[in-house]
Design a protein that fits this description.
Structural class: alpha/beta
Strand order of the largest sheet: 3-2-1-4-5-6-7
Number of helices: 13
Radius of gyration: 21 Å
Strand content: 5-15%
Length: about 375
C-alpha cells in the first residue's frame, strides 16, 4: 500500500456522485470482513443502493469484491484515514471500530449517521475504553447484555439516547451455518485431543505472559495436537514471544500455527479451546457447543470506570457455563468433554438471522436520511 494510492482513493471517494456514496462501510482489514460481509451482500441483494467499502488492507475480501454497485477504496491507518473520516460526506457510515471521535478518528464535519457493528460478544463497559461508543448514533447489539450496558452508560453519564438495534452476531451465524454443513467429528474415548489455543492480547494474556510456550510444550509432550491462533494484536505487539514459540515447535507434526483469525477450519477441527479473556471463546462455545478451558489470568479491563455500572461482564459470568477455569498449566487435562446445557438465544439476538435484521435497518436508515437531507 502506498501513501499516494490512498490519497488517490480518498479523492476519488469524495468526488463520487452523492447518490453513489450515501452508504459507506469502513473495515480495518481482512479480520473484520466476517462481521460486515453479510450486511454488505444482503444490502446489495435486497436493494438498489450503491455501497462504498473502505478498507485499510488490500487483503480484505470486501475490498476485492466485483459488483456493479460496490465501490471499493483503500486507505491507511494514519493521516489519510484521519482526513477522510473528518471530511467524508455520506448519509450513513457503518463500522466495527470503536472510539469514534475519542482519538485520531473524528466524526465528519457533515451530518453523518454512524452505526457501530459488534466484532465480539464481550461486554462493552469492560473490554473497551471509557467513552468508546459515546459518539455513535446507532449501536447494533449482539445480545441483551449490550442493550443493558449501553442504556446503563447513558443513564450513569447523562448521555443522549442512541438507537439500539437487537441485531445479533454475524460471526456466530457463520460458524453455526458452517458447522451444519460439516460432518461431525467422532472422537474415540482413548484418542488424544486437538487443542486450539486462541487467547486475547495484552500483557497478562497467555502468549504475552510466557504461558503459551509452557502450555504448548506440555500438550505436545502428552501427544496432543495443538493449533496456535494468536490475536492479530499479539502478532503485532508481541512478535518475540510468538517467534520463540514458532521456532521451538515448527518441526513438530502435531503443532500448527494459524495467522488468519477470520478463518474457521481450526474451530471446527479442534476438540477443545484454551483461552483467557478472548471473545473467540464465546464464538466457539456458543456456536459449536464445544468446551473451553479458561486460564484465570487477571481480567482484561480497559475501562477503569467499569465497576460504576455494577454490571458483571458477560465474558466473566459465562465462564462456568461454557467451560472450566484453571489456574495453571498443570491443571489442564485432556478429557474435558462436559459442557453445561444452555440456550444460545439467551445470550444472542436473532441467531442465524442477524444479517436480515441488520440490512433491513441500514436500508431504511439510508432512505430516511435521504429524505431529510
Amino acid at each position: 500500500m502506498t501513501f499516494f494510492r490512498c490519497i488517490r482513493d480518498a479523492i476519488s471517494l469524495t468526488q463520487l456522485e452523492k447518490n453513489k456514496r450515501r452508504l459507506i462501510f469502513y473495515s480495518e482489514g481482512e479480520n473484520y470482513w466476517p462481521h460486515l460481509k453479510g450486511l454488505v451482500l444482503k444490502i446489495l441483494e435486497k436493494s438498489h443502493l450503491e455501497v462504498c467499502y473502505i478498507s485499510s488492507s488490500e487483503d480484505d475480501p470486501g475490498y476485492n469484491i466485483a459488483h456493479p454497485r460496490l465501490h471499493a477504496f483503500l486507505t491507511d491507518e494514519g493521516f489519510v484515514r484521519n482526513w477522510l473520516f473528518e471530511n467524508i460526506d455520506t448519509d450513513v457510515m457503518v463500522m466495527t471500530m470503536p472510539d469514534l471521535h475519542q482519538y485520531q478518528i473524528k466524526r465528519s464535519i457533515y451530518p453523518v449517521h454512524y452505526i457501530y457493528v459488534q466484532h465480539s460478544l464481550v461486554s462493552l463497559h469492560s473490554v473497551y475504553r471509557f467513552g468508546a461508543f459515546d459518539f455513535f448514533d446507532t449501536i447494533f447489539c449482539a445480545g441483551p447484555h449490550h442493550v443493558q450496558e449501553i442504556r446503563s452508560m447513558e443513564k450513569k453519564y447523562n448521555l443522549p439516547a442512541k438507537d439500539l438495534v437487537e441485531h445479533g452476531y454475524a460471526r456466530l451465524d457463520d460458524i453455526i451455518n458452517e458447522s451444519n454443513k460439516r460432518l461431525k467429528k467422532q472422537t474415540e474415548s482413548n484418542e488424544k485431543q486437538h487443542y486450539l489455543i486462541a487467547p486475547s492480547w495484552g500483557k497478562n494474556c497467555i502468549i504475552e505472559s510466557g504461558l503459551g510456550y509452557e502450555l504448548i510444550e506440555k500438550l505436545l509432550n502428552e501427544g496432543n495436537k495443538v493449533t496456535l491462533r494468536p490475536h492479530p494484536q499479539t502478532i503485532k505487539f508481541a512478535k518475540e514471544e510468538v517467534y520463540k514459540i514458532l521456532e521451538m515447535f515448527k518441526c513438530n507434526d502435531l503443532f500448527s500455527f494459524e495467522r488468519n483469525v477470520a478463518g474457521q477450519d481450526s474451530l471446527h477441527e479442534s476438540d477443545v479451546m484454551i483461552s483467557d479473556w478472548s471473545g473467540a471463546a464465546l464464538d466457539y462455545a456458543l456456536g459449536l457447543k464445544k468446551p473451553v478451558i479458561f486460564f484465570d489470568s487477571p481480567q482484561k479491563i480497559n475501562n477503569e470506570k467499569w465497576e460504576e455500572l455494577h454490571l458483571v461482564p458477560l465474558e466473566s459470568s459465562i465462564r462456568n457455563i461454557i467451560g472450566i477455569r484453571v489456574g495453571s498449566v498443570n491443571e489442564v487435562y485432556s478429557n474435558i468433554n462436559i459442557i453445561n446445557e444452555f440456550c444460545v438465544g439467551d445470550f444472542v439476538f436473532n441467531v442465524s438471522n442477524s444479517n436480515e435484521i441488520g440490512s433491513d435497518f441500514i436500508i431504511e436508515k439510508v432512505k430516511t436520511r435521504q429524505g431529510q437531507i
